[in-house]
């Protein structure tokens, strides 16, 4: 049996946007240092697998799409290589690839590497002692989530922006925050255009109280004259496309309508195709077996999930921010058990807990950190003047939304996310 002091424990993180970035930084800044303090000579390495070379601030995409003079597209991108240059090169490696398979028995992830020529691909297997899945979801349009090649997103921005000045009729599909924000930005910047928003359900913002959705509808109608339509979905589109002429849209009631510009802002599909079906719920999201986001099914120990791909997640940044320390605390506890068999995890943080990723005890044994997100919180701007929202369940006025999010779409958060400084210690 190999000496544990010479073994390099491999942590694999799948996903290179907010979830994967946050987890990797937290592990490097807190979890690994805490384990190395109590297990002298232990070695750890993180492999971050991402199909993209850059992180994407998708929160700001509605503003950039419609009013790039206020939020240029260049500000939405940050190279992943810069994110981890601050750490020793033998601690973290970024691999540009897509996870395409997994063996929980062999404890390996199969990844596919694609070069400049997308038709040329190669596969490799990465072993793991701990696996964090943060692959998120993929929206139908590359405007809102990355589609492997980030150039697709840039090209879609360019096409829509070119079409907007001459578009007289615009149809936006999607009753969630992105659809509402996009409709609001469009109506604010192009008041002469006829804008229709299809919620796809019985109301807007279906994840929150109906009063908030009703306020969003009133805001769009009263401030901008947006036509909000419920209980209709887009079944198909034909011809057209941004800047290429009218698009014929077929709706779920069988009717058709031509529009100068169609923008799909409907929800995404979980990126879980490479995972065993027994790990997933009916929507394709990953089930967890405890409150610390260990994966259910035959995953075995040392497999975790965070972000939008978690079954039951509210798909908010507030949820994700709370998941990162919780998941990393579970990683710390489980790796500590491998390093020191028989040691019991602390039931709660002790006086020295601040020195340990996810909490700790005076004995140096990591403790699990509870998941405590900011509940019932959402801010939905509609143009630069304000919007609707709630904080901890309390409705907030439009001026609050304007001050917090409408002005800049939270772009100042991006640098600390990519650099990892939002997680403290380095």
From TrEMBL:
- Which Gene3D superfamilies does the entry link to? 3.50.50.100
- Please give the Gene Ontology molecular function terms for this protein: electron-transferring-flavoprotein dehydrogenase activity; flavin adenine dinucleotide binding
Query: For the FAD/NAD(P)-binding domain, which residue ranges apply?
Result: 9-310
Origin, by domain of life? Eukaryota
Q: Name one GO cellular component term.
A: cytoplasm
Q: What is the protein name for this chain?
A: Uu.00g043280.m01.CDS01
Its source organism is Anthostomella pinea
Q: What is the lineage of its organism?
A: Eukaryota, Fungi, Dikarya, Ascomycota, Pezizomycotina
